[in-house]
Write a structure and sequence with these properties.
The protein is an alpha+beta fold and 80 residues long. It has one domain (14-79). The chain has helices at residues 51-59, 62-69, 71-79, and strands at 14-16, 25-31, 36-40, 45-49. A 4-stranded antiparallel sheet has the order 1-2-3-4, covered by helices on one side. A hairpin with a 4-residue loop joins strand 3 and strand 4. It is globular and about 45 Å long. The termini are far apart.
């Protein structure tokens, strides 16, 4: 059982973008061919991060999952 003081890693779904001010964080939004789309809601900013793309796939290996699961995976992704 996880206690109240346990750490939870949310990277790369939630990342620090180094913005000045009170809202330096952005949330995962989407993927393009070679970039991760991120949103910073309080600042109303949208980022396209090419550097995060490979790192994202290390944590969430979508291509590997797609190959292993086949048609069902593709159908579920299309529904989303």
């Amino acid at each position: 059982m996880v206690g109240y003081n346990a750490a939870l890693c949310v990277h790369p779904m939630f990342v620090h973008k180094g913005e000045d001010g009170e809202a330096p964080f952005a949330f995962f939004n989407d993927l393009s061919k070679d970039k991760v789309g991120l949103l910073n809601y309080p600042l109303s900013k949208h980022y396209r991060d090419k550097e995060l793309f490979n790192e994202f796939h290390q944590f969430i290996p979508l291509d590997e999952w797609r190959l292993k699961s086949g048609k069902e995976f593709n159908q579920r992704i299309e529904i989303l």
